[in-house]
Write a structure and sequence with these properties.
- The protein has a single domain, classed as Purple Acid Phosphatase, chain A, domain 2 (4-Layer Sandwich), CATH 3.60.21.
- With about 270 residues, it is an alpha/beta fold.
- The radius of gyration is 19 Å and the shape is globular.
- It has helices spanning about 15-25, 45-55, 60-65, 80-90, 95-100, 135-140, 240-250, 255-265, and strands at about 1-5, 30, 55, 115-120, 150, 160-170, 175-185, 195, 200-205, 220-225, 230-240.
- Zinc ion binds next to loops.
- The site of zinc ion has 7 residues, from loops.
Length: about 270
């Protein structure tokens, strides 16, 4: 089974349609790591596509904020993001609101993919925490047992590789064995599929990057394809008509800063 993994679409329909076209025929299932809406101009259209195509979708912080439920305060968002959340609330159809409200908040183990965990932000803080550094990743590896955890939320593609090893420390007359673990940060490359070698001593956190609002100084849409038979991961970048999304955002009077940032990928 090959799984198309999308995250942080953020109501950017032009980016989503480009990615779906690019990946067409190369996947058997689609998982979405959350934040289908927020920031962008086409929330209903993007939710409709996920309702139709995604076999799994988890709740992102923007999806939750749009629902206007207890547990999230829209004042915690920056002013432009808050504006977009409030605008999205007004746009959402009732059936799309119900779909978002039904998305799982906690990390999910897809039934057809043993050893894999899927969440929006991090295993220990499923909606809020940004895994940006090996130190934060190391703490999160203690919060799950699966071989691979897929996360989004940072909008930055990354692979964090956890490695456990035994270390012998001198203790008086003898040596004591200590279990140690380190985490390496691996840059995502889109040249070709990489093998996902995992074992009880080597596990991974993988972030595919963002479809609709990349923040790694590369404006192209980001996504990935997981091949569960070969156990490979292919990271991909694809240019999309940014100006189309930007003109839709201007028509919706969404904040200029949100419009401009798409050109630069931050
Ligand atoms: Zn996001």
């Amino acid at each position: 089974m090959r799984v198309l993994i999308l995250s942080d679409i953020h109501a950017n329909l032009a980016a989503l349609e480009t990615v779906l076209g690019d990946a067409d025929g190369q996947y058997d299932a689609l998982w979405c790591l959350g934040d289908v809406v927020g920031y962008g101009p086409k929330p209903n259209e993007c939710i409709a596509l996920m309702r139709e195509r995604a076999s799994l979708c988890v709740m992102g912080n923007h999806d939750w904020a749009v629902l206007n439920k207890p547990g999230i305060n829209v004042d915690d968002f920056n002013p432009q993001a808050r504006h977009a959340v409030l605008w999205t609330r007004e746009q959402l159809s009732e059936e799309n609101r119900i779909y978002l409200a039904g998305l799982p908040f906690m990390p999910v183990q897809p039934p057809d993919a043993p050893g894999i965990l899927v969440t929006h932000a991090s295993p220990r803080e499923p909606v809020w925490e940004y895994i940006l550094t090996p130190t934060i990743a190391l703490e999160n590896f203690q919060a799950f047992d699966d071989a691979i955890c897929f996360v989004g939320h940072t909008h930055k593609p990354a692979i964090f590789r956890w490695h456990r090893f035994a270390s012998f420390v001198e203790g008086g007359d003898s040596y004591e064995m200590h279990e140690m673990a380190t985490v390496d940060y691996l840059q995502q490359r889109s040249e070709g599929p990489v093998e996902l070698a995992t074992s009880p001593d080597q596990r991974l956190i993988i972030n595919p990057g963002s479809v609709g609002q990349p923040r790694d100084n590369d404006a192209r849409a980001a996504y990935g394809i997981l091949d569960l038979n070969r156990m490979t991961w292919q990271h991909l970048r694809i240019p999309y008509p940014i100006e189309l999304t930007q003109s839709q955002m201007r028509a919706a009077r969404l904040p200029k800063r949100l419009v401009d940032r798409l050109s630069f990928g931050w």
